[in-house]
Amino acid sequence: MTDRYASFVRSGAGRTLVKRLGLPDPPRLRRHTPGDPIVPGPVLLGAATGGRLAEQAGKVLTAAGVELRDPGAVESTERFAALVYDATGVTDSAELRQLYDFFHPRARSVLPSGRVVVLGTPPDECGSPREATAQRALEGLTRSIGKEFGRGVTAQLVYVTKDPDAGTWTSVEATLRFLLSGRSAYVSGQVVRVGAGTAVAPADWDRPLDGQVVLVTGAARGIGAALARVLARDGARVVALDIPAAGDELAAVANEIGGTAVQLDLTAPDAPARLAAHFADRHGRVDVVVHNAGITRDKTLGRMDADRWDSVIDVNLSSQERINDVLLERELIPAGGRIVSVSSIAGIAGNRGQTNYATSKAGVVGLVESLAPALRGRQISVNAVAPGFIETRLTARIPLVIREAGRRMNSMSQGGLPVDVAETIGWLAWPASGAVSGNVVRVCGQSLLGA
């Protein structure tokens, strides 16, 4: 679907009008192409006094081929592809001044589509209420930077456990690689938690899913088809699933990526058992389960019939629970496995006319929050993504005024693409992301809706 306003803004006449009237100015976003470096320029790495992560983060980034700069040895006119700041040394609100001293003189030094990443300590792991207060304050800083710097610049906060192990550092590297790269083009203002856990770095970071068996539900079109393509590009053996009515489109996607197509209605009583039998017979396991299948049946609650309510809850939420239960009970998801569910900002902020949909997607958040700690002992991570306005055939049918509001009411002033959701799920699916669990990451260009 073409964003005609964005195309007009990028013309000569459009740019003049935007500046004169103060209209939204959608930037060109840097997205990932295989073979791209992580960042297209130098990265400035700074740290608060007593920061515990900067040294190791510097080693990780240098080994990844990133050119680092020291804040004490740069020219005032130098520009950077990213700013990375270790704020773990901030243990009192007065010490937040160090963040101002680092970011204030460099607010205009970040290149277009640049990145800002702040590293912190999870507030619930802090040694005192003052430290927890200061670390929680970092969320306001990063979310505000994401809205202020403009030009496609994103800003994120990564909380890293106080008791890191080897798996933690592998997942910190995976997270930095994702957040600094073009893969995270439409992710901004997010908080990611990296704990302790099992994580395995790939032999080739250009194929981080090499050899992994991945299930993608709802794979025939839109976000699901983009998911299948991205995961296959990253080395996965993709099992693409959708309803029989979408069989032709599903087969086309599976053939394109060299994957397998499975036609199955997930709401059928025997669907979980049939799916489990497929993986047991064909692969012996499923390393990554991506619950993408979903439907909408919109009506205001007072006008909604029971069938609309039941069908949305069943497809979007209950089917995920049933499939998880059977795959886990039969131990088909091995240690090091991943479960990634697709929620929505509607599940976080609510949405008029989508009570059923918002309920189901909030339930997905609950699934992640409850299942992640329960599966930690089995070394299986559970996360979700929450897309905002994504350019699909579904959003193309939204009335013009509402569609334009959805596109412009975020820090990027534009809708995201299905590939943006796919890249985020890909990162959460990587074996290297094993210590990233219990997260709900919004892919919404930092939408003004919700938290």
UniProtKB/TrEMBL annotation:
Pfam families: adh_short_C2. InterPro entries: KR_dom (IPR057326), NAD(P)-bd_dom_sf (IPR036291), Sc_DH/Rdtase_CS (IPR020904), SDR_fam (IPR002347). Gene3D superfamilies: NAD(P)-binding Rossmann-like Domain. NCBIfam families: PRK08261.1 (NF006110). GO terms for molecular function: oxidoreductase activity, acting on the CH-OH group of donors, NAD or NADP as acceptor. Residues 212-388 form the Ketoreductase domain. PANTHER family: 3-OXOACYL-[ACYL-CARRIER-PROTEIN] REDUCTASE [NADH], SHORT-CHAIN DEHYDROGENASES/REDUCTASES FAMILY MEMBER. This is 3-oxoacyl-[acyl-carrier protein] reductase. It comes from Micromonospora echinofusca. Belongs to the short-chain dehydrogenases/reductases (SDR) family.
